[in-house]
Amino acid sequence: MITPQAVREAASALRDVAVRTPLEYCDAVGAYLKLENMQPVGAFKIRGAFNAVRLMPDAVRRRGVVTYSSGNHGQAVAFVAQRLGVRAVIVMPETAPAVKRDGVRKWGGEVVLAGRTSEDRQRAAEALAASDGLAVVPPFDHPDIVAGQATVGLEIAQQMRHAATVVVPVGGGGLIAGVLMGLAMGGCAATVWGVEPVGAPKLMRSLEAGHPVRLERTASVADGLITLTVGEVPFEVIQAHRARLGGVALVEDDSIRSAMHLLRARCRVSAEPSGAAATAALLAGRIPAAAPVVVVVSGGNVDPAFFEAGTAHV
Fold it and tell me: How many CB atoms lie within 10 A of CB 52?
């Protein structure tokens, strides 16, 4: 379904678009941080978004693109569309943080607010696609998206082939699926742990059931991790690499907030709640990690006022 060649081609195409983010050791965490917050859009999502849009037929891409996103994927699609000179419409939740809405507009994207759930956004995006002739760029459930995210794992393998544990936040599953595949391609035998908020255990429930499970509701300060389900494509990849998956750890919102503060104060890393979730799980002792440990800081799009006035701005 997703071939190693597809991942290698994605990595090659991304060389002039995405940052090959560093691994930096932080004593306070006791791990190497894969700093995807350093991407041009502040999150790993640029990898999958660019790969998916670049592979569209020219005639389809020229009509413009639309996506549904809590923020980071939307910013990535807007960035890519601006770079390629096409229209981008981003359907976001009514609760989307201002920093993420402003980020979409910064890259020329048109913001449309629709409901509060991923399903609300998806319905609105599909309606716009039908009415305006736009191509939908899914946030995680597509082979081209997962192939792009797999470049994160491939880079980790190239940067630290002897890594023993890699900890990854889980939203729709595209990132952890990609990391599993990329590590395998790079010859890194690390055990991978997924991290979800206590209020959004969709991958944990899906692994227990053996198929993607849709939760009735999700809630967390980590807005990028509260999808109701994992995608079918990511889940198939995760199952294919199940032998190297250590498991899924759940983490509370208070632990995520604490990790955000620690990352900023002790590691000089600005991470949004979703980006700090993996660090939070490690610090809370939820990961039986063998060293060396790599923690993916998946994004850094957080309102700076959070660090000045507390959690009200997260």
Answer: 27
Kindly list the distances between the CA atom of residue 309 and the CA atoms of 63, 96, 97, 111, 261, in Å, as whole numbers in the listed order.
43, 19, 15, 27, 12
**What are the residue ranges of helices labelled H in 55-201?**
58-62, 72-84, 98-106, 118-132, 143-159, 174-185
Q: Which of 34, 45, 100, 202 is catalytic?
A: 45
Measured CA to CA in angstroms, residue 111 lies from 30, 234, 314 at distances of: 39, 27, 20
pLDDT digits (tens, 9 = 90+) for 98-152: 888 898 999 999 999 988 777 888 999 999 999 999 999 999 999 999 999 999 9
* Cα-based distances in Å from 61 to 50, 53, 76, 121, 147: 12, 7, 15, 21, 19
Among 3.90.1150.10, 3.60.15.30, 3.40.50.1110, 3.40.50.1100, what is the CATH number of 46-136? Answer: 3.40.50.1100
CA 167 to the chain's CA centroid = 13
> pTM of the prediction?
0.94
pLDDT tens digit sequence for 266-288? 999 999 999 999 999 999 999 99
Q: Spot the catalytic one: 70, 220, 255, 298.
A: 298
* Amino acid (one-letter) located at 34: K
The residue type of 212 is P
- Rounded to the nearest 10°, the torsion over CA 66, 104, 53, 242 is -100
Third-level CATH fold of 4-43+142-313: Rossmann fold (3.40.50)
What's the count of helices (H) and strands (E) in the chain, helices before strands? Answer: 13, 10
Q: Is residue 273 within 8 Å of 220, Cβ to Cβ?
A: yes
Task: Indicate if 298 belongs to the active site.
Answer: yes
